[in-house]
Write a structure and sequence with these properties.
The complex is a heterodimer. Chain A is built from 20 helices and twelve strands. In chain A, strand 8 and strand 9 form a beta hairpin. The radius of gyration of chain A is 35 Å and the shape is extended. By secondary structure, chain B is mostly helical. Chain B contains 16 helices and two strands. The longest helix of chain B is centred in the middle third of the chain and has 41 residues. The chains are: A alpha+beta, B mainly alpha. At the A-B interface, helix 1, helix 12, helix 13, helix 14 and helix 15 of A face helix 2, helix 6, helix 8, helix 9 and helix 10 of B.
């Protein structure tokens, strides 16, 4: 028997039914927000990791010279004493400079010679000296000089300085010498024409950009601050003239290239010519690198190199690029694994800088942290969990520990500065002090983890031990602690991993100094990995960027290893009661 | 580390091992063929002897390590000629540093007759102290050994004594946490008081201009240095606001999704991934903000016609927000999970959809806990250092424009204390005053947040 529903109930049903699609849509939306939040967070993590990996990857390789070098006795040990003290004072910088000059004998102008020497930092002389002092028999012989190339050349060769196009030619190239060291080039091949069009379109793009900016300025002159209007109008006019000149120049049959334009080179087996004026089939250039000279040559195997970024806006000039290309072609510069990065301490020159010093500093600091924080933390946890009477003092200690866990890390740095350095006169910048400061910071983490682990041991274990006559102390140390050990270790390792990545407190106690040696003791001045990252990140030169990211990769790798160890430990020893 | 320590510490460790075995043997010997007659296991007698042999000596040795350098400096200072003592404080500090460097082999920035003299005093005082410590440590070790060895007998209650010592040790370790807090408060307070003796506290808290350059020479113009901290507070507030605008919605929605919608397997994967965000060192976030987010924001702003710089409140705040997401999400997740299932079931039985249940039942019930989580996150954001040092800039702008560089309390602490510093200048002391403000604010936030969370917990457990 079915009773008809009362009328008002039916209308309620109808209302509900009518509202259902809206409510379901709201449900869908809400769910999407949740998913969106998670996707956003995961994407941010992904972006962070990907961008750092992408930036840091190039720092794991480096371009290195391998040049034949004659170790002339006159420069190293002129009197032939064979005394290590005399040899240590030899003129190794000159030796390196002579080697470079011999590699490019036609470099004469003073400015160019200096640019050539800049390809190998003078700090490289230190390695050379150590090598010769260690093995004086090398004096007078010819050795292979290996050293990193300058960071600018390294970046260029890695393709990080400028977009670069190489156009391989097939037809012949006729080269005729002209006065003033210039050469005239002529070819029917398309590659020269392609370069011509590339420069042309680059100029046109520049002109278009100028016009857009001029337009904006003109608009600003009418709408914006009237006092700035004359200035804006003048600037707009200047840009428009420049754009017009550029556009006109781009139409001419021969483009004159200056230092503010893209660079074009013509390279063959044994020479590199910098183009100064470029037509579709002809060009005028300067010989930058040449092995043999002949007034007229026909070259078959050649290519055109187009570098988009103008010489004026980069740190490496066209000649240095030409030398670099030549060295690479002659295999006198090779790409190798960047072992310097892992064996050297910090340096003023990026190509000679490494993380070994910071790594040792971090390990020493972490050692001090571990030795201080782990025993104290575990003992404190045992006391609070097993012995402490329930009174106000115990409660006070607990509140204290919880609050310490949330104190900003920089405050611990201030404490270290005021107490360890200024009251106790401990050495500045030392891993010992850094370790102690980080230990105070890690202590609450260790205590909280250890307490949780001790609490997880079931009371039956304690009762059994007490029941067969063990004292309270014996119960704790013989039975409870071994069972809680895996949990304590896991928590401790996670705490130490956090201490490894901590920077701010170390800045306060002076671990930010530039330190070019690997620290040898726990009181020697040193840095730590995160501080090294901070120091490099605030350096201006472009080459530091990749090294910073590479150091981050290493640091994160270390932290992942530590955390993984903690997870494995937990899985291996975890017991559920 | 003083070489005396490097020589005495291993010696003490050796003495500890030897005395342990000696004590054990003596206990066994005293039992005369009947080990069962011993009150304690023989090992406890060994421990007892080892403790008495090494612990008093070790305490002296540690005191020497911590207080020795200060003691030597005090001794030297009392022997200085009056004209050196009359130097201004920072000059005197420099003098002492140079003298120490001369005495113990370091890089001294200058030399003079007075310095060489002081250096000689340094060497002499250090030698006297070293000799005293060696004699004292040796005496304590031998005396303790002799005294404890005499006590060891068959009915000696060695275990109880050793256990009492261990108990004291455990208690001492748990008091270290209290001492740390005390040390923080004392060091911040004393230095801040010295700062407020030089700078009016009202000017500090309500001043609008922050330029902490102090005079190198007394007659320099425009050197007084102004310490108005409002621009720093404003910068901190702006960046915290931006960070919270990112972290709170994302964190709470993520927590809701994880606890109410996600399948257990998805939850198992996503939760650790989110927590990785909290484990990444902050200096890495700083680098990311400086080199990826900063330039990106600048380009974006310029393309829509706004002036912007690479270092800005926005880039620092955004990245900090990302870092803080897991703090909000995992704490909120906990409180949402703690809401009793009965409340949910009741809501479903009334015909509410899942999202209506979350919005109308679960969130109100979990609100105090979520508020606590947000407050903890705010305290975290205020105290965060590296991201802002690298990405927010150093100029003390008083601005609400997130595209401008601003500076924060933590940034200024770092700027004031890195590089050369004289310990008594107002510039250095200002860092401690800022530290005190930071400590008090974060402490209040934490205490308040913990109270809110605890109060909430009591209601449903």
């Amino acid at each position: 028997m079915t009773e008809p529903l009362p009328k008002d109930t039916r209308s309620t049903r109808r209302i509900i039914a009518a509202s259902l699609p809206r409510r379901y849509r709201a449900e869908q939306r809400f769910r999407a927000y949740g998913q969106g939040a998670i996707v956003l967070a995961v994407l941010a993590l992904g972006l962070l990791l990907v961008s750092i990996t992408a930036q840091g990857f190039s720092a794991f390789t480096i371009y290195r010279f391998s040049l034949p070098m004659t170790v002339t006795q006159k420069l190293v040990d002129p009197k032939g004493t064979n005394d290590p003290k005399v040899i240590a004072k030899g003129k190794y910088r000159r030796l390196i400079q002579n080697t470079l000059r011999r590699t490019f004998p036609d470099v004469k102008a003073r400015k160019d010679v200096r640019a050539l020497f800049a390809l190998s930092t003078s700090l490289n002389a230190v390695d050379l000296r150590n090598r010769i002092v260690k093995n004086p028999a090398l004096i007078g012989t010819t050795i292979t000089y290996t050293a990193p190339v300058s960071d600018d050349l390294d970046l260029y060769l890695k393709g990080l300085v400028t977009p670069r196009r190489q156009l391989t030619a097939k037809g012949d190239l006729r080269v005729r010498s002209a006065p003033n060291g210039q050469v005239n080039l002529e070819t029917q091949d398309q590659s020269l024409a392609t370069a011509y069009h590339l420069v042309q379109s680059a100029w046109q793009a520049e002109a278009a950009k100028d016009k857009v900016r001029a337009g904006k300025l003109r608009q600003l002159a009418t709408t914006g601050d009237p006092r700035r209007a004359p200035h804006n109008t003048a600037e707009a006019a200047r840009l428009e003239t420049r754009a017009a000149a550029r556009e006109k120049a781009a139409q001419s049959a021969r483009l004159t290239l200056s230092a503010t334009d893209p660079s074009v080179f013509v390279r063959s087996q044994n020479s590199i010519i910098k183009i100064t004026a470029l037509g579709a089939n002809t060009a005028v250039g300067k010989v930058f690198v040449q092995d043999q000279t002949a007034p007229v040559q026909t070259i078959k195997d050649w290519s055109v190199l187009y570098l988009k970024r103008p010489e004026k806006t980069r740190r490496i000039n066209d000649r240095q690029i030409a030398w670099g290309e030549a060295l690479l072609q002659r295999q006198q510069v090779k790409k190798v694994f960047n072992s310097i990065f892992f064996t050297h301490a910090d340096s003023r020159e990026p190509e000679r800088a490494g993380i070994a010093g910071a790594m040792v500093g971090s390990l020493l600091t972490l050692l001090a942290t571990m030795l201080a924080a782990v025993p104290v933390g575990i003992f404190a946890a045992i006391y609070l969990e097993e012995f402490a009477p329930k009174n106000r003092f115990t409660g006070f200690i607990e509140v204290n520990i919880n609050n310490l866990a949330a104190v900003p890390s920089i405050i611990f740095g201030l404490l270290g500065l005021a107490v360890f350095l200024n009251v106790f006169h401990m050495p500045r910048s030392a891993p010992l002090v850094g370790g102690l400061v980080l230990a105070l910071m890690t202590l609450p983490v260790v205590i909280i983890a250890a307490r949780a682990a001790i609490k997880a041991v079931p009371p039956s274990i304690r009762e059994a031990a007490l029941g067969i006559g063990a004292s309270k102390m014996q119960t704790v140390f013989h039975h409870v602690l071994p069972l809680a050990a895996p949990g304590i270790m896991t928590g401790t390792i996670i705490g130490l991993a956090r201490a490894l990545g901590e920077t701010a407190p170390l800045l306060m106690i002076g671990m930010v100094a530039f330190i070019a040696q690997i620290p040898r003791s726990i009181t020697a001045p040193s840095t730590a990995m995160p501080v090294q990252i901070y120091l490099w990140a605030s350096s201006a030169e472009r080459a530091w960027e990749a090294r910073t990211a590479a150091a981050i990769i290493v640091l994160i790798g270390l932290m992942i290893a530590l955390n993984l160890a903690a997870v494995l430990l937990r899985h291996k020893f975890e017991r559920r009661w | 580390m003083p070489s005396v320590f490097l020589f005495l510490f291993p010696a003490l460790v050796g003495a500890m091992v030897v005395s342990f075995f000696l004590g054990k043997t003596r206990a066994l010997g005293s039992a005369k063929e009947h080990p069962a007659r011993l009150h304690s296991l023989p090992g406890y007698s060994g421990y007892y002897l080892a403790i008495w042999t090494t612990m008093p000596a070790l305490i002296v040795l540690l005191a020497y390590v911590f207080f020795g350098p200060a003691l030597v400096a005090m001794q030297v200072r009392s022997g200085l000629p009056p004209e050196t003592l009359a130097l201004p404080v920072e000059k005197l500090e420099l003098f002492m540093r140079n003298a120490r460097a001369l005495a113990f082999g370091g890089a001294a920035s200058q030399t003079s007759a007075a310095l060489t003299d002081a250096a000689r005093h340094f060497t002499a005082a250090a030698r006297t102290l070293n000799m005293a410590v060696i004699v004292l440590v040796a005496g304590l070790a031998i005396g303790g050994f002799a005294m404890a060895r005499r006590q060891i007998a068959a009915d000696f209650r060695a275990r109880n004594k050793v256990e009492r010592f261990v108990y004291a040790l455990l208690l001492a370790c748990s008091i270290i946490a209290v001492l740390t807090t005390l040390g923080i408060i004392l060091s911040l307070l004393t230095e801040s008081l010295r700062f407020f003796a030089q700078v009016n506290i009202i000017d500090f808290i309500f001043g609008l201009k922050w330029s902490p350059q102090t005079a190198l020479r007394a007659d320099q113009i425009g050197q007084s240095g102004s310490f108005g901290a409002i621009p720093l507070f404003a910068g901190t507030f702006l960046i915290t606001l931006i960070a919270m605008a990112v972290a709170v919605p994302v964190g709470i929605y993520a927590a809701i999704y994880l606890s109410e919608y996600a399948r257990p397997r998805a939850r198992q994967i996503i939760k650790p991934v989110l927590e990785v965000l909290a484990g990444i060192p902050t200096v890495v976030y700083g680098f990311f903000a400086l080199l990826t987010i900063g330039p990106f924001i600048r380009q974006l702003a310029e393309s829509i016609g706004l002036g912007a710089q690479t270092q800005s409140a926005l880039s620092a705040g955004l990245v900090m927000g990302i870092m803080i997401i897991p703090f909000v999400s995992s704490l909120s997740d906990d409180v949402i999970n703690a809401v009793p299932q009965a409340l949910r079931d009741g809501s479903y039985a009334m015909g509410a959809t899942q999202s209506e249940t979350v919005r109308n039942i679960i969130l109100p019930a979990a609100l105090p806990g979520i508020m606590g989580a947000v407050m903890l996150a705010i305290s975290r954001a205020i105290g965060e250092t590296m991201i802002v040092v690298m990405a927010a800039g150093q100029s003390a702008n008083l601005t609400a424009n997130p595209l401008q560089p601003v500076t924060t309390v933590t940034v200024q602490i770092v700027t004031l204390l890195t590089g050369d510093q004289e310990f008594d200048s107002a510039k250095t002391l200002a860092a401690f005053a800022l530290g005190l403000v930071l400590f008090v604010v974060t402490l209040l936030l934490n205490i308040f947040a913990l109270q809110v969370v605890n109060k909430y917990r009591e209601r449903y457990d």
